[in-house]
Amino acid sequence: MNKFFRLAVIAIALLSANNLLAQQQQQEPPKMDPIEMASEFTEKLITELELNSTQAFYVDSVLQVNYTGLIDEFEEMKSRGSQDGNSYKAVSDKWEEKNVAAFRLIMDEQQVIKYLRLMGKGKEYKKGKDGKYYKKEKSKEKDK
Questions:
Q1: pLDDT score, position 125
Q2: Treating both helix axes as pointing N-terminal to C-terminal, what angle do 53-80 and 34-49 enclose, rounded to 10 degrees?
Q3: Residue 63 and residue 116: Cα distance in Å, rounded?
Q4: HSE-CB of 100 using CA atoms within 13 angstroms
Q5: Which residues, given as ranges, of the chain have pLDDT below 70?
Q6: For residue 109, how many C-alpha atoms fall within 13 Å in the half-sphere facing its CB?
Q7: Is 88 helix (H, G, I), strand (E, B) or coil?
């Protein structure tokens, strides 16, 4: 009976420690590392957009700078007590526009369109029979 009691106490202590650790993790989400985020997303873009090594270098550089700026701006908003989701969305959109503007200098038109579509934008483009993207009204003319 004594061994059972000790095992029960140890089990309860372990469960309590585990619950405490889980609560701390929920309260303090891990910090986002913009360099790591940029690297991971660049790897995805290399595959999806068929970037060459020069393009990959520039894309990674742009993403590192812009992700750092985005996170810094989010932290600043958070420290001011901003809780408005629309404000965070506006800031996110601003930095996304900076990405697209920089990518237009780095990538060809088809890669930029693929990037836009990957990000859930670029709905005005449709894939033609040749595998390239065209503005929707242009693709209708081309099919005729």
A1: 86
A2: 140
A3: 15
A4: 19
A5: 1-31, 138-144
A6: 5
A7: helix
Token look-up 């900076």 returns 98
Sequence-ordered list of residues with C-beta below 8 angstroms from that of 108, at least 6 positions apart, any chain: none
How many Å apart are CA 138 and CA 126, to the nearest integer?
9
Question: What is the rounded CA–CA span in Å between residue 60 and residue 38?
Answer: 6
d(CA 89, CA 76) in angstroms, rounded, equals: 14
**One-letter identity of residue 137:** E
Give the per-residue pLDDT at 139.
Answer: 44
The sign of the dihedral angle between the CA atoms of 62, 118, 134, 125 is: negative
Question: Which long-range contacts does 28-33 make (Cβ < 8 Å, 24+ apart)?
Answer: 32/67, 32/71
Looking up tokens 């992700």 gives 67
Q: Six-digit token pair at 18?
A: 């585990």
User: Residues of 49-63 as b/e, b for ≥16 C-beta within 10 angstroms?
Assistant: bebeeebbebbbebb
